[in-house]
Amino acid sequence: MTVVLDLDETLVCAYSRNNVPADLLYSSAKSFEVSCVLGNGRMGDVVVFPRPGVQAFLESLAEFAELILFTAGHPGYAQLVIEMLDPDNRLFAAKLYRPETVRTHMQDYVKDLRRVGRCLSRTVLVDNDPFSGLLQPCNVVPARPFYGDPHDRQLMRDLLPFLRGLSTLPDVRPTLAESFNVPEYFSRHGYCLYEDASGYLTAAATIIS
Fold first, then answer.
1. pLDDT tens column, 168-209
2. Which intervals hold domain FCP1 homology (predicted)?
3. Where along the chain do its domains lie?
4. Catalytic-labelled residue, pool 8, 112, 129, 152
5. What is the model's pTM?
6. CATH no. for 2-10+51-203
7. Residue 6 catalytic?
8. Active-site hit among 6, 112, 129, 152
C-alpha cells in the first residue's frame, strides 16, 4: 500500500517565531526552528512542532507501506522540515510540494493522487483537510488537525492501527467510503460527487491548472 502524507497540521504544525501561541511557549511541546522564505518573500524563522509520536509513526508505517509526502507547503520551507523528520532520506519514496497541487473551480491546492503514479486501489491520502483529496475522496483518511498539543496521540493510537488494517485490503476505497461516510460528508459541505469512468466517486471539479 502507498500512504501519501500531508505535512502541516498532520505531521507537524508551524508558526512564525513572533506568532507562537503563548500556551505552546510555556508547554512541554517539543519544537525546532528553521529559517526559510516566508509567504511575503522574505527570510524568516519558523518554529515547528512535530506531532507527538511522529518519528515512531513514520518508522512503523514504513514497515508495511510505501510513504510519499505531498504538501501544499512551499518547497523552501517543507524541504527543511522533512530533513528534520527524515534526516537520512530513507523514509519517503517521493516528495511533492505546492507546485504539484492543482487548482480547481472549487478549491485551490488540491492533491490529485494520479500525480503520485501509484495504483489508486492501494493508495491512501492522510490529510487534516479532507477536501485536499476532493478528486479522489474515497482515498482519504482524515486526520484530526494538529496545532501543537503535546498530549495529542492520534498518530500512534488511531491512525497507525487503522492504516495497518487497510494495508491487507485489495482495494481501500470501499472501506474508506463507508468508514467516513464520504458521500454524505462531501455533500453536506456542498461538494457534488459523481461516479467516474471506473465507478468510483469524485468531485465535480474541473482542474484549472
1. 999 999 999 999 999 888 888 888 888 887 788 888 777 887
2. 1-166
3. 2-10+51-203
4. 8
5. 0.94
6. 3.40.50.1000
7. yes
8. 6
